[in-house]
Design goal:
mainly alpha; 5 strands; three-stranded antiparallel β-sheet; 197 residues; binds zinc ion; two-stranded antiparallel sheet
């Protein structure tokens, strides 16, 4: 029997609460329990374990169950080279990091590049394209987050970025997946059309 914790709006199971407690207390080495697919087979996983579930590779990092691809994305975002690939100067300014993330060069190089575009009268077009590309990236991320959430929610956890929760009553995975894919497809077509206008 699963022990339920009463008084919470969402239905938390005892294992969810334990996982949260471990997370808060920094006890990331403690093993945590997860269900695989639709079977009732229980497997214990602990910090650093890597396993395949569904079509994804999962791990537990800092007490949170997450997909490996998500980790890779986070890594890529965090690590940037010491010097700018464009001018070779050390990137140490506060604005270097956000600019490197988008443009793969330092803030000074971005300023210089954008200045040249302004002179050539190409700046507005460039800005429009940049915004469009950014919106597409956000859309892709939102889609994969939602599909992840739907396809792990019936028996597992929706636990990206520290959220540990369990949905009540289960979800219609096929219907929701179809809805998400259709909605993002419509939006993607619209954004791409804007980008190419
Ligand atoms: Zn530079």
């Amino acid at each position: 029997m699963q022990q339920k914790v009463q008084g919470l709006k969402k239905e938390f199971r005892k294992t969810d609460v334990n996982r949260l407690r471990n997370l808060i207390q920094g006890k990331t080495g403690d093993s945590t329990n997860t269900q695989i697919g639709y079977s009732t087979k229980q497997e214990d996983y602990k910090e650093g374990d890597v396993w395949t579930e569904g079509r994804k590779t999962w791990t537990i990092k800092n007490g949170i169950k997450q997909t490996i691809s998500k980790l890779d994305t986070i890594k890529k975002e965090v690590f940037m080279p010491l010097s700018c690939p464009c001018c070779n100067k050390i990137m140490k300014k506060q604005l270097d990091k956000p600019n490197y993330k988008i443009h793969k060069k330092c803030f000074d190089c971005v300023i210089e590049f954008e200045h040249k575009l302004r002179i050539r009268g190409e700046y507005d077009d460039y800005l429009k394209k940049l915004k469009g590309k950014n919106n597409l990236t956000i859309l892709d991320e939102a889609e994969s987050y939602l599909l992840d959430a739907i396809n792990t929610s019936n028996n597992g956890y929706v636990s990206e970025h520290g959220e540990v929760e369990r949905w009540i009553g289960g979800v219609d995975k096929i219907k929701l997946t179809k809805q998400v894919k259709e909605a993002t497809k419509t939006r993607r077509t619209h954004l791409k059309k804007e980008l190419n206008d």
